[in-house]
Structure formats: structure tokens, C-alpha cells
Amino acid sequence: MKKLNVIKLKHRKNTENSATVSLPLPAEVTIPMSMHMGAPCTPLVKVGDIVKVGQKIGESDAAFSVPVHSSVSGTVKAVGEYRSVMGAVSKTIVIEPDGRQEVSEEVKPPIITDKESFIRAVRESGSCGLGGAGFPTHIKMSTKSEIDTLVVNGAECEPYITADYREMIERPDDVIGGINMVKDMLGIKHTKLAIEANKPEAIRNFTELAANDDTIDIVTLPSAYPQGAEKVIIYNSTGRIVNEGTLPADVGVIVMNVSTVAFLYRYSKDGMPLVTRRLTVDGDAVGEPKNVLAPIGTHFRDVMEFCKVDIEAVKKVIAGGPMMGMSIPDIDMPVVKTSNALLAFKSYEARKATSCIRCGRCVKVCPLGLMPAEIDKAYRIKDIEDLKRLKVNLCMNCGSCTYACPANRNLAETNQLAKALLPRK
Ligand code: SF4
Ligand code: SF4
Predict the structure, then answer these.
(1) Is this model's pTM higher than 0.70 or not?
(2) Spatial separation of the C-alpha atoms in residues 286 and 107, rounded to whole Å
(3) 155 in the same domain as 30
């Protein structure tokens, strides 16, 4: 089997042994109507309304969307505008918690009898990919293609992040329960639970738990980046290639994040939709790095204060990992469904980009065999035809090229800007 290009990074999994700690209830939560890929929701509540935990507060008619639920009980203080780190604008609902955390009457275990009711329940849960991409889970499951393999992504290949690892260590039965539920409901025969080799305890536990189940394989992936990228994990765990213009379903595969699978299992039992998020808080400005379970909508500032971040000394805050995460301009932005990490650094210095020296390292590390230096050149002269020829649309923004470039060129970011120039299909 041909090997895909990968890079070796320092793991920096400093919080791998920190059991998840629940964040105290914040004074305010700000819940955006768009935390997923697809259409934003419309608020279902107005200023002054009393809401409860798990109550649906945002919905959309669009199929490619998921509802939004309240993470607290309290009073709606404002309905405003929100701009995500990616620049997407949606409405947002600001709620003042009453401290009682009363659960909504809407929260009931879903009635699941067949594939259709299962997919409906998955949508109602508000689930979107918890690995960071935010793709609506029910859309992935609604494929008409025949799926024979479920790939469960437990790679967590970015440095620092241990949120999925803690899910695997703390809630392994939920992971196995979720796998069995998805398999049964969608009629999938095999599962590959793919975990990087730097998580031996998780590999050992799941090997034991699945010892008598020949439908679940535990796949140990080499510790390398970007092992968790969708096309990479499919190839490395099944040998199948997702070609340009095709989807994983076209090769008989669905990929789900390990925390998403575990969440769906819990939802099937108690009906509590996606209202909390486990995130890793780390970086050299963090006094107490840890994994935190936060109500969705908690401001990053509250999370930082809880983890003893020296806020005055912070020079850079990243939502997500250091490779694919985004710098956040404002620490009063909220934790959203896709927030798997918050990294705060005080030693950060911006690197000055210099001219390309044509060393070819960016090409050598790209898992998809793209030519980032050429894309960079085509982007600067806005040569759309050349950008198409260079297949910039395939770039998955893994950041390996930027990391490898000795001239400090921000190639991954350029690729995203270049993609935006292409005509939309
Ligand atoms: S960011 Fe894009 S071009 Fe750069 S290595 Fe990753 S996939 Fe390749
Ligand atoms: S890695 Fe940087 S310097 Fe080397 S070819 Fe690519 S863009 Fe140029």
C-alpha cells in the first residue's frame, strides 16, 4: 500500500492524564445559531423568555442544518449578531443562567425503531462532527450509497488536544454502544476504530472490549500528522482511496469522530441534546492545563480564568489545535459545538515570510500530492485557470505545508483564500 505523506510533530499531550472537570456555570452564555456546516438556524425564543436545559432555541427548515438547544436554564437577555472565527455571520442568543439547571420537558429519549427514525433522532440531537469540522451527522448517514464500513476516528493527531482521548478513557462503553447502534441502525457490517499509536491505554482498553466482536477492528495508526484527516484515515485504515469529486460514501465508508459516536449513544438513552462540549485547555500561558466540560456558549474568557490563564500575558489564543485551529480575535467569543481545544500562548512571535527558495518541502509533505508553492504563485497573480489545474479545491487545510516551509510562507492560509476565488458549483 502506497504511503501518504505525513509529518512528525511533537505530541505535547500534556493533559492526557487529566480527567475531565466540569466548568462552574458561567454568568452568561452566548449561543450562536450556526455552529455547524450548513444553513444557520432561526431563533425560536425572544428577549425575556425563560428557557431550560436542552430546550430547542434555534431551528431551520433546511435539510443541511441542525437545531440548536439551550445549555442552561435561565432568561434570554439578548438576540444579536455573531461572527464566527471563519467569518460566518448568524444570530446569537444570550442567556443569563438562573443557576437551577432545570431540564426542559422536551428532553426525552428518542423513539428509534428503524433507520429513518434513527436519522431523524440524530438530527434532533443537534449533532455535528465533534472532531472540529461540524458536518451535520444526519447528512452523512442519509447517503443512498451502500456503506459496508464505519471508520471511527480516534486519531486525534494534532498536538496538545486530548479531548477525544479522554472520551475514550472515561466513556469507553459509550463509544462501543454508539458504534453498535450506528452499525445496527444503518446496516453497516464492519467498524474500524482507528487510534494513533501514542494512545496505548485506549488501544488496550478497546482491544479488550471488542475481543469477542469480530465486526469491530481496532486499528493502530502510526503517530503522524494528519492521520485524522478524513481521506487519510480512510486510506490508512481501509486501503480505500476517495478520489477527486467523490465522497467517502462512494467507497462504502462513513467516518465518524469517536466523541460524536459516544454522544449519540448517550442521547439515545437520555434524550439530552448536544449542550456541552469537552475541550482541552493548554499552552504556555495556561497555569492549570486540563480538559474541561463547558456548557455550549460559555465565553472563552471564563474557560481561561478557570484554567488560570495569565490573560494579560497572552499573545495568541487559538480555537482548536495549532495546525488547523484558528486564532481568535476576542476571548469573549463562545465555546461552540466544534470547540475541541483552546490554546493560549505568551511566547508567540509572528514569523516573517520571505521569498520561496524552491526547496520543494511543501510538496513533499502534502498528503494529497498538491503543489502549494505553485498555488501560492498562481494565487498572487489571481490565475484562476492555474488554480483549477493545481487542484487547490482539494486542499484540506491541514497546515503541513506551512509547517514545513523554511521561508515561513503561510501556504495553507493562501490555499483557503485561493479556494474562495474559484467559481462556486
Ligand atoms: S494545507 Fe493543503 S496543500 Fe498544504 S499540505 Fe495540507 S492539503 Fe496539502
Ligand atoms: S516549502 Fe516554502 S520555500 Fe520551499 S518550495 Fe515550498 S513555498 Fe517555497
Answers:
(1) yes
(2) 36
(3) no
Same domain, 258 and 155: yes
CA–centroid distance, 379 to ligand 2, in Å, is 15
- Give the SS3 label for residue 256: strand
Secondary structure of residue 44 in the 3-state scheme: coil
In a domain, 12, yes or no: no
The CA distance from 380 to 372, in Å, is: 12
Helix ranges (DSSP H) in 252-297: 258-270
In contact, 382 and 343? CB cutoff 8 Å: no
Last residue of a domain, one of 319, 345, 371: 345
Establish whether residue 414 lines the binding site of ligand 1, counting it when its CB lies within 6 angstroms of any ligand atom.
no
Q: What pLDDT digit, counting tens, does each position of 200-253 carry? A: 999 999 999 999 999 999 999 999 999 999 999 999 999 999 998 899 999 999
Q: Ligand 2 centre and the CA of 409: distance in Å?
A: 7
* Torsion from C-alpha of 260, 263, 267, 270, nearest 10 degrees: 180
Q: Is residue 174 part of a domain?
A: yes
Q: Atom 4 of ligand 2 has which residue's CA nearest to it?
A: 359
Ligand 1, atom nearest to 398 Cα: 6
357: CA distance to ligand 2 center in Å?
6
CB 396 less than 6 A from any atom of ligand 1 = yes
Domain count, the chain: 3
Instruction: State the closest ligand 1 atom to the C-alpha of 372, by its place in the atom list counted from 1.
Output: 3
- Residue whose CA is closest, atom 3 of ligand 2? 356
Domain that holds residue 411: 361-421
